[in-house]
Amino acid sequence: MAGHSKWAQIKRKKAANDLKRGKVISKYLRAIAAAARAGGSADPAANVQLRNVIEAARNDDVPGDNIERLLKRLQGGDEEGSHYEEVIYEGYAPGGVAVLVYALTDNRNRTASEVRHVFSKHGGSLGAVGAVAWQFERRGYIWLDTDSPEAQDAAIEAGALDLQESEGGLEIYTDPHEVYAVANALKAKGFHPQDTEITMIPQNTVTLGEEEAQKVLRMVEALEDLDDTQNVYTNLNLDNVRVEA
């Protein structure tokens, strides 16, 4: 689990400029449409998966107007998202680092070709289904910028499964279905989560030298830049890795 809060900080840095921001918003809107289809309803109250995606989008500062306009279209019978399906790619980056890529695509062949190209270009190797997924566990994740006893007590009371002090803050792990409920309970007690998401937590991490670690980071960034990519997860230990904004 070491270094996960640093990953969250990296994601925020990479999404800072307008071009990146536009791609982040577009990916969330695609995910919302796909979740509405997969859950059989465009009503967040009746579709847990959709509700979680919307919460994640709002947490990542996707404009509420964009979300509401899309929901109205979907509730009115718009079939946006009906042709997208989730595909998961598994493989290894340089240094034996495990990589999971979650994508939403309307063309499996195109997406597979693009992902394979990035793996190959950056010295990685794309594997078969099940190659690395077993090394990760799906969890809700919250990061607070305080690790005070009061914050820890509040997190436990709200339903946290595990707590880790990290970089002057507190990493909170929850059941993936409960992460936003826990975050809201913390807000109600006066705490301010800096990051809330449903993620894949590596059971063990790989530590590399600076040069090899930078190769992995460049590969992850290239994968994230693909239009169809939703999320990229690795088991690289970032504790002592230099990260540029």
Automatic annotation (TrEMBL):
Domain TACO1/YebC-like N-terminal: 5-76
Keyword Mitochondrion annotated: no
Keywords: Cytoplasm, DNA-binding, Transcription, Transcription regulation
Entries under InterPro entries matching the protein: Integrase-like_N (IPR017856), TACO1_YebC-like_2nd/3rd_dom (IPR048300), TACO1_YebC_N (IPR049083), Transcrip_reg_TACO1-like (IPR002876), Transcrip_reg_TACO1-like_dom3 (IPR026564), YebC-like (IPR029072)
GO CC annotation: cytosol
Positions of the TACO1/YebC-like second and third domain: 84-236
MF GO annotations: DNA binding
Entry keyword Cytoplasm: yes
Family of this protein: Belongs to the TACO1 family.
PANTHER family in UniProt: TRANSCRIPTIONAL REGULATORY PROTEIN YEBC-RELATED, TRANSLATIONAL ACTIVATOR OF CYTOCHROME C OXIDASE 1
Protein name, as recorded: Probable transcriptional regulatory protein Mesil_1645
UniProt organism field: Allomeiothermus silvanus (strain ATCC 700542 / DSM 9946 / NBRC 106475 / NCIMB 13440 / VI-R2) (Thermus silvanus)
